[in-house]
Amino acid sequence: MAEPRNLSRRAFLARIGVLGAALGGGGLLARGLLNPASGATNPLLPPAVDLVRPVLAALARDTLNGLTTFALPGPDQYSRTQRATSRTPGALEAGATDFMISALDNFVPFPDALAQPISAALVTGLADSGVSLPGLEVLPAELRSLDQAFTALLQSDEAIPLSFPIAGLLNLMATQVNPAAVNGLHLSPFARLTYAEKARAFELIEKTDSDLVALLDVHFPEPLKASVSGLLKFVGGALIEFATFGAYSEYGVLDRETKTLRKRPVGWTLTGYQPDGPVEGWDDFIGYYQGRQEVRD
Amino acid sequence: MRDVIVIGAGGGGPVVAKELAAKGLDVLLLEAGPRHAKPREEWSTFEEDANNPLTGYFRLGPTDRSKPAWYREWPQNSFVWQLSGVGGTTQHFYGNYPRAYPGVFKGYEGADRNEYDVEHRFPFSYSEMVPYFEWVEALMPVQTAAMGHKEQLFFKGAETMGLPVQTTKTTHKASYRPQENAILQPGGTAGKTTSSDLLVYPKATGCTFCGYCFQGCMRPKGAPRNQYAKRSTDNSYVPMALTAEVWSRGGKPAELIADAYVTRVHTENRHGVLTASGVTWRDNVTGEEHREDARVVVMSGGCTENPRLWFNSGLPNPNGWVGRGYTDHFFDWMIGSFDDYTGNPKGVGSSARLDYPPYGGLENVGLPPALNAFAGTLSDSGIRGQYKNGRGKTGPWDGPAGRVMGPELKELVAGGIDKLMTVLVITDDDVEAQNRVTPSALPADENGPIPKVTFNHRKRTKRTLRNREFMARKAAELLRGAGARKVYRIDWAPLILHVQSSMRMGSSERNSVLDATGETRAVKRLFVADNSALSNGLGGPNPTLTSQALATRTAENIFQTYFGGDPWVRSEAPVISTDPRISVRLGELGL
Ligand SMILES: Cc1cc2nc3c(=O)[nH]c(=O)nc-3n(C[C@H](O)[C@H](O)[C@H](O)COP(=O)(O)OP(=O)(O)OC[C@H]3O[C@@H](n4cnc5c(N)ncnc54)[C@H](O)[C@@H]3O)c2cc1C
Ligand code: SF4
């Protein structure tokens, strides 16, 4: 049974985290800023669009904090929330979230032609998945104005930072795993999950028969549809691998211009890698196995 | 009008360029990626700087790193690790140069002859290949690997398995040994000190055990480019091609243009025969297109890019095999954790191996922290202790296969990355039509429609799947024998590093793109010379030696068929790529 459009729309925005991030307890937009009256008179809502943009950026960062601490937990609040912490530095100390945002927004050569429809799907999608969300009523009612601003932004020809649809995907999955994640500490549903729940969210993404595209309700023509569906499975794996790579890499302390390190990277400290920094060589040459320096037929 | 245009300066292209430049032909070598002429200025030892697949200097993309990398579609959890740039994917390889197993060649009569991919053998015999192996081995040169602590530990494990030590170039049966590799053996102070003052050429020669093979070899410091320890083609074949006049009588230096993306192979109909006539390339910097004609065109863009170029050029594909039969050795990854120091990640990444025809093989691979973390989290079996993604096999390793990530990975490396030993599981995998490159439906990039690489890894042939399980068990046995306290199996999703056979050479017109000379069946004067030309996955050995031997043979065929020359491999001895005449000339050229 389809919910009335407004309700289902509200649920969807809550699930991808936008509603909570913008308006929920601790939300980034003061409710008064989104005055429903002005929304009704000005469909493009230019001031509200400017307000929504940083909300989306903050939502993406929060979601990715949830991801990078999943890859490398540390002594931070996100790790505490997932109930997998560690006393030694983790992803946040390593700058892994910045690594992910920089990569996604500037370097993943993901064609706009795809990012746009996926993002648009996150705008128009209803995702009536039958999961009932608790606590929707504590989220405020200024849906229409927010939604219009959101829609206006995503339908403009402004390039959508890829971190936004990625965050949307993770949050959608998060609320699938734990509907209660629409509310609580942090801005994003994904960051509110426990470690096991985050794993469960990835299980859903990776599952070979899951059809995320259907869930997103994106209408791609074939054969693009098959491509996008395959792509999302790739994205699931890549997010984990890439976040982990970033967390253990020199990203946070590397000066690219001078090719020097500002500090010892977290990944090196954690693994004891080259205690005195880069070398020209090591004294690790023992000899030749069984003394044999050459073979021939 | 050139004599020969070679597309791609990776593992294969420079071989043809060098061999034909030596014979005095006018050769143009076009490379899509960066030149990297000054490694000491352009490179570093940092994983983020070098190996970030989006922004690193070793990526698939143009020279300008502020521009995005070239996007490729793979519709499964996998990673195709190809590099652009002079040297291609050999820039970050480990220089392991084993020969293909004899069982993958025509006419093989060993007792296990029916156990290989019998439908897709090379269309000629192993003994016909041997002179080409020998030629490349002498030229590189290929030598027996020096041993560090991680190799010693690998051998300790191998010694418990009841296998002999291989002391020949040819692999006749299951056995283990130091790699034969294209790495100059350490000389002078190399491998004996950590003092950078002492590790300067010529006080140090050959491999200094720095451990940065994956970030590019530029050691020993101060050595001429052609005497850097690792013989990636940017350090070996390319310098030879560019200096052919000084080391080969009658030689003519090849011209190399980097940042030149070939977008089209041109053909014309000559007396009813479709014939290659030239190429168009695009300058990555200016976006300008250039067209040049040639008597012969050689495709050496690698297993993924050659089919793409073929499709984008609108060339015929009568039997449908262009892009099909892609093999990748269906790798897996095993991590052993030890109480004691293992030497990981010092020295050449991978200097010990175990061969197991007709199943595959094993080799050790030492990685720095971020790549080690990446390798531990690329899995088709979910996350250990959380979910299995329908797999999560159990066996002689600890617990189910799957990602070692998050808290578990942190704990694993907390003992020190040099208390790990990691083993690459290499599968002798079958050529299968379903594993292939096709044009992607995703939007084109500036060079045209992009390739899509599909691996149906869960549905590979019974033999392939059996071989992978067999070798994974052997890897666990080896790690336990070496004294591992714990052994983890990752069950890698396809990590496509060893690429072969997507434009395969074969004896049958029904399932091959190339005839036995390396020429394409559909277009005359068009040759393929790189890994994609290989007939199969070689039984598991790392592909570059065999690919370069085959490219040498193809160069001979080109010279004989279209330039009226004589073959040389059986009658001459090669000049070695470290030859001082090459060094001097490189110096004059500012290279
Ligand atoms: C991590 C790693 C370790 C490895 N270790 C080993 C090892 O120890 N031993 C071994 O034998 N093998 C190893 N390999 C495999 C080895 O790198 C390949 O066998 C080898 O590089 C293949 O050579 P190729 O010429 O087929 O392709 P590539 O080396 O990939 O070269 C293709 C080149 O063509 C260029 N190109 C493509 N399309 C175009 C175009 N349209 N126009 C112009 N230029 C184009 C590309 O930019 C590239 O430079 C390793 C690979 C990886 C990833
Ligand atoms: S370990 Fe040896 S071969 Fe590898 S980069 Fe260092 S010097 Fe070169």
Automatic annotation (TrEMBL), chain A:
Establish whether keyword Membrane is in the entry. Answer: yes
Instruction: Give the stretches traversing the membrane.
Output: 12-34
Q: Which domain of life is it from?
A: Bacteria
Q: Which UniProt keywords apply?
A: Membrane, Transmembrane, Transmembrane helix
Tell me what this protein is called: Twin-arginine translocation signal domain-containing protein
Upper taxonomic lineage: Bacteria, Bacillati, Actinomycetota, Actinomycetes, Propionibacteriales
Automatic annotation (TrEMBL), chain B:
Is the keyword Oxidoreductase assigned to this protein?
yes
Residue ranges that the Swiss-Prot or TrEMBL entry lists as coiled coil: none
Extract the Gene3D superfamilies matched here: FAD/NAD(P)-binding domain
Domain Glucose-methanol-choline oxidoreductase C-terminal: residue ranges: 496-551
Which InterPro entries does this one have? FAD/NAD-bd_sf, GMC_OxRdtase_N, GMC_OxRtase_C
Keywords attached to this Swiss-Prot or TrEMBL record, sorted alphabetically, are: FAD, Flavoprotein, Oxidoreductase
**Under the GO molecular function aspect, what terms does this record hold?**
flavin adenine dinucleotide binding; oxidoreductase activity, acting on CH-OH group of donors
Domain annotation Glucose-methanol-choline oxidoreductase N-terminal: ranges: 111-330
Q: Name one Pfam family in it.
A: Lycopene_cycl
Q: Which domain of life is it from?
A: Bacteria
Q: Which family does it belong to?
A: Belongs to the GMC oxidoreductase family.
Query: Which PANTHER family does the UniProt entry name for this protein?
Result: LONG-CHAIN-ALCOHOL OXIDASE
What's the name of the protein?
Choline dehydrogenase-like flavoprotein
The organism encoding this protein is Kribbella sandramycini
